[in-house]
Specification:
Blueprint: E1 7-10, H1 12-25, E2 30-34, H2 36-40, H3 44-50, E3 56-59, H4 62-70, E4 76-79, H5 88-95, E5 98-101, H6 104-115, H7 119-128, E6 131-134, H8 146-159, E7 163-166, H9 181-192, E8 199-200, H10 204-209, E9 217-218, E10 245-257, E11 262-263, E12 269-270, E13 275-280, E14 297-301, E15 309-314, E16 323-326, E17 338-342, H11 348-354, H12 359-365, E18 371-374
Parallel strand pairs: 1-18, 2-3, 2-9, 3-4, 4-5, 5-6, 6-7, 7-8
Antiparallel strand pairs: 1-10, 10-13, 10-17, 11-12, 13-16, 14-15, 14-17, 15-16
Length: 375
């Protein structure tokens, strides 16, 4: 069967190298490799290969945890939002997951469930399912405020649970905003200073820029996939991160526009000179942002080799299945020429920035109809 030319390729060696870089920066810390949202669109299957050296995986859904166990991941798994109902705890135990507790109802569910279990199941839970108690240190999404944190900790300790400590930074990628990393870190250290247990706070931006927060477990996310926490490529240009995903396609048609002619829906682009337009098999139904304006970068390769190419820029509205690019300055661009929408030659952050979004969104938006290859 011939696949449509567009293809996403997941580069597991690059994922592996990115994790090693994060661990190198934080030599005294263990790591939770964050693989939520199907490993930021890179698939759990690829993540298990790329992050095999991590001490654990952090994700959201029990279904994803179950898939990781089915694929023979035997190390730790952390459920970042914890349980959503009392029934979830049966799966938490079966899959031996650590889980976050961030509000009182989760403690109530745990107490109620625990009392109904046999002594053997209680012992198995206490041995294999640690709690990571979340402190709201200023981001004001999930977690206990400092005044309630100690009470929650004591309730869980009295059950016999192993309890660790976790918080999340609001602005680790932008120190001009409040709460600052340091202000949140001060709240976290003060609230947990007299309690036993491990500590985890540092996301990708904190790993890169705030070494005081590295603590016992780091939680790298976006950096593992080769993109910038701030969404600005220049912020990571010197770090050495590598693209975890390439999205590539081909030119499927060439149109020659005369001065004054338009291309695409809405006539968003009008030629001001004679213009050579390449039509590429990629559209918003593949996950490319429809709102990408004229001038969003695309890498066009020569027919013989992708790397023998250059940048071109979108011209006209992205449609469902196609996009159009001005290749007037690229004489080698022709029918069948390879194209990289983002990846090793064109950083995803540059595309996202031009389109007014972030690399996270582009990674997660790649559509199911796009053929995915794991290498």
């Amino acid at each position: 069967m011939m696949h449509r030319p567009i293809q996403a390729t997941i580069l597991t060696q690059n994922l592996r190298d990115n994790l090693r870089l994060a661990k190198n920066i934080c030599r005294q810390s263990s790591s939770w490799a964050v693989v939520k949202a199907n490993a930021y669109g890179h698939t759990i299957e690829a993540a298990l290969q790329g992050f095999s050296e991590s001490e654990g995986l952090a994700l959201l859904e029990l279904e994803s945890a179950g898939l990781a166990r089915k694929l023979r991941w035997q190390k730790k798994i952390l459920l970042l939002e914890g349980i959503f109902s009392i029934a979830d705890l049966d799966e938490v135990l079966r899959l031996h997951c650590d889980h976050v507790i961030h509000h009182e109802e989760q403690i109530t569910h745990l107490l109620s469930w625990f009392k109904k279990q046999s002594a053997d199941r209680q012992a198995e839970f206490l041995e294999h399912c640690s709690i990571w108690l979340k402190l709201n240190s200023g981001m004001n999404r999930l977690g206990f405020k400092s005044a309630a944190y100690g009470v929650a900790f004591e309730v869980l300790k009295n059950m016999g649970c192993t309890v660790h400590h976790l918080t999340h930074f609001a602005n680790a990628d932008d120190e001009t905003k409040f709460p600052s990393v340091q202000s949140q870190w001060d709240v976290f250290t003060k609230a947990t200073q007299f309690f036993a247990g491990l500590r985890s706070a540092a996301n990708s931006a904190a790993i890169l820029h705030h070494p005081q927060t590295h603590a016992d477990f780091i939680r790298p996310g976006i950096m593992l996939y080769g993109a910038s926490p701030s969404g600005i490529y220049q912020d990571i240009a010197s770090v050495g991160l590598k693209a975890g995903m390439t999205l590539r396609s081909k030119i499927i048609a060439i149109q020659d526009l005369q001065v004054g002619e338009q291309v695409g829906y809405g006539s968003q682009f009008t030629a001001t000179k004679n213009t050579k337009i390449a039509v590429i098999a990629c559209g918003y139904a593949d996950g490319y942002p429809r709102h990408a304006p004229n001038g969003t970068p695309v890498w066009i390769g020569s027919r013989s080799h992708l790397t023998d190419g250059g940048l071109a820029f979108t011209a006209g509205r992205v449609s469902m299945d196609m996009m159009t690019v001005d290749v007037s300055h690229l004489p080698f661009a022709e029918l069948g020429s390879p194209v990289e929408l983002w990846g090793e030659l064109l950083p995803i952050d540059k595309v996202a920035y031009s389109a007014g979004t972030v690399g996270y969104e582009l990674m997660c938006a790649v559509a199911p109809r796009v053929h995915v290859s794991i290498v």
